[in-house]
Write a structure and sequence with these properties.
The protein contains 15 helices and four strands. It has about 375 residues and is mainly α. It has a single domain, classed as Na+/H+ antiporter like fold, CATH 1.20.1530. The strands form two sheets. It has a two-stranded antiparallel sheet with strand order 1-2. Strands 3-4 form a two-stranded antiparallel ribbon. Helix 5 packs parallel to helix 7, helix 13 runs antiparallel to helix 14 and helix 13 packs parallel to helix 15.
């Protein structure tokens, strides 16, 4: 037992065990539905509930590797997707974040007096798994700790909701993912007038170019855009790295840095970092699930799940049935409208294609501004 206990204190062993067990769990299929690599999240939640955690530095590095790899893989298609769906992405971001805020408001009024206004504002950002929203809520409340408590309670349930959403929607609504991929491929051919893609092929993987994207993305994420009385908003580490990689990857090279790199290597980096990223999210959020039940009962959990599902389902019906957006692109756009990186990872795994990221990158920038606006409005209303 002492040997096992010492092993579980080894962070690398703990993360590796979580990913390994998660992959086994992800292979279990029930009526054609499986968790895939998202199984690592659920194993992490289980182990985290027993007190096993890892430092956040692991989270940051794996998140950065994941979003840069995803950005470079999806860069070729982003301009085409944004050109076709741009204005719809703007409306989708407003609707998804707005419906999430409205659902949070209604449920908070329903359970009036059972949680502080600051906690409710934090719950909204946690339900949509939005770090930019959390930052805005903390700024609006002067760093009130209740905001962080609300976020921490709702976050794991928000993650589970978005992961299950992208996994289950095709089965529940009869969406053939392979046919959606074929339609998307036809759209790409149309954009090149039926000819082969004229853009140059990939080159060998360049570690220097990859690091260039990490550094450039980190700097981009630090830029703050003032919003008057609402404070300021920035892309953050995730948004900065993703958008920098999407932009840089659209060029063959930038100075000495080749940008069209070997997709097999980038896909390997993406898969490895995604598995560890989801495992770390689960490990560090698992304890919060137990504390949520013990300290706050069902209220914040209900708000978190209700806000997340309301936002996701509204975005789905609006995008798929009204605007006829291809499910591959829409799955990414809904996650981008929530600024949800765990959702992006689950969507890539569920669809089996990185083209999901083009939708995510198209919706993400507007969604950040919307999260700040609606978070501040919630705080103002309750305050």
């Amino acid at each position: 037992m002492d040997f096992f206990a010492s092993l579980m204190k080894n962070h690398l062993f703990l993360m590796g065990l979580t990913v390994g067990l998660g992959l086994f769990l992800g292979k279990i299929t029930v009526r054609g539905i499986s968790l895939g690599i998202s199984g690592a999240l659920f194993v992490g939640l289980f182990l985290g509930a027993w007190g096993y955690t890892v430092p956040n530095d692991y989270f940051t590095w794996n998140l950065m590797f994941f979003v840069v790899a995803v950005g470079l893989l999806a860069a070729e298609d982003t301009a085409r997707v944004v050109k076709r769906y741009g204005i719809k992405f703007v409306f989708l971001s407003v609707v998804v974040t707005g419906v999430g805020a409205l659902a949070t408001l209604l449920m908070a009024l329903l359970f009036a007096g059972e949680a502080s206004p600051h906690m409710i504002a934090g719950t909204y950002t946690g339900a949509l798994t939005s770090s930019p929203g959390l930052g805005a809520a903390l700024e609006a409340t002067g760093g009130n700790p209740d905001v962080t408590i609300g976020y921490s309670v709702a976050y794991p349930f928000g993650v589970v909701a978005v992961v299950l959403f992208v996994q289950l929607i095709p089965a529940l609504f009869g969406i053939d993912v392979e046919k959606e991929k074929e339609k998307l491929a036809e759209e790409k051919k149309t954009s090149f007038h039926g000819a082969a893609d004229p853009r140059p092929g990939s080159q060998a993987f360049s570690l220097l170019s990859f690091v260039f994207c990490i550094v450039g993305g980190s700097l981009l994420g630090k830029i703050a855009i003032p919003l008057g009385g609402l404070g300021s908003v920035g892309l953050g580490t995730t948004g900065g790295a993703l958008l920098f990689a999407l932009g840089a990857g659209s060029f063959e090279r930038i100075g000495p840095f080749p940008m069209r790199m070997d997709k097999k290597v980038l896909s390997a980096i993406r898969s490895i970092s995604l598995g560890f990223f989801l495992a770390i999210v689960g490990l560090n959020a698992g304890g919060g699930v137990v504390n949520a039940f013990l300290e706050h009962g069902i209220l914040l959990i209900a708000v978190g799940i209700g806000a997340a599902l309301a936002a996701e389902m509204t975005g789905f019906f609006l995008g798929y049935y009204l605007w006829k957006i291809n499910w591959i692109i829409l799955a990414g756009a809904i996650c981008g409208a929530m600024t949800s990186t765990p959702g992006l990872g689950a969507a890539i795994d569920a669809t089996g294609t990185d083209e999901v990221s083009a939708g995510y990158g198209g919706a993400y920038p507007v969604a950040i501004v919307c999260m700040v606006l609606f978070t501040t409005m919630l705080h103002t209303y309750f305050h």
